[in-house]
Task: structure prediction
Amino acid sequence: MKDLLLIKKIIDEKETSEVYPVTFDLDDSFKRSVALDIFKELNDKAIIKSNRFTIKDHSFTIDILPSSITRIIEEVIRRNMKIYGIYVLYDNYIEEGEWFMDKKIMDLINEQMNFEFESAYIYKAMAAYTDDLDLDGFTTWLDHQVSEEIFHGEGMKNFLQSVGYKPVYEAIAKPQGDYESVLDVMKSALEHEKEVTRRITNIAKEANGVDERVRSFIQWYIDEQVEEEETFNKIITRLERVGDDWHSIYILDAELGQRPEPTEPNIAE
Result:
């Protein structure tokens, strides 16, 4: 009851005529058919302000005035379902019970989501370069790196959606296509990963003491970056040692071609 009273206090203090997407997160008592009944009944009474209705796992999202949230709560409780959390996207905050999630942090995650997809584009261009050199192993390795970056971006997208933030996709810049050598490719990749690390670390700093869920979520990426930078450093060291010895480069190429295809990690779980 404490959470419901606090939510009502937030709503009462936030008088607005603007419609927002509101997500109601329920526990195992959630029933899809009951959620649809609530939507139909309140839509007929014009309490719901659009025909958009989304159900995902144990939650549903509807477009309403924030002041109508208490009415939805009453309908959910009346149908013997229990509310776990409520998410309302405002201009400056996403408010969920006792959580006040700074929109600035959500924007940073959205920005990084786009940067992860841009990373995939960058590695795809690198793979095209090594393919032109007939280095099949490097090409396979970089193509798998492309898949990893897409998985990373998807993880951020899923997290944003889970807290009621609508992901925004930005245009991707044209990647570099020409390099001096395969060593130059790997050094450029390492510098890129260092920039990824810097951005992710910044998200963690912004979330520290403000939103522990974000801090917990982003830790997976911090750990992943340690592994990413270490891997590129090792490849660079070996390339520097062999120099222009193509026999040794082909041996490394064969090794990198054995990299297993990545599988999608459970980042947000």
User: Anything to note?
Assistant: The chain has eight helices and six strands. The helical segments are 2-13, 32-44, 69-78, 103-132, 136-162, 182-207, 212-242, 246-256. The radius of gyration is 24 Å. The longest helix spans residues 212-242.
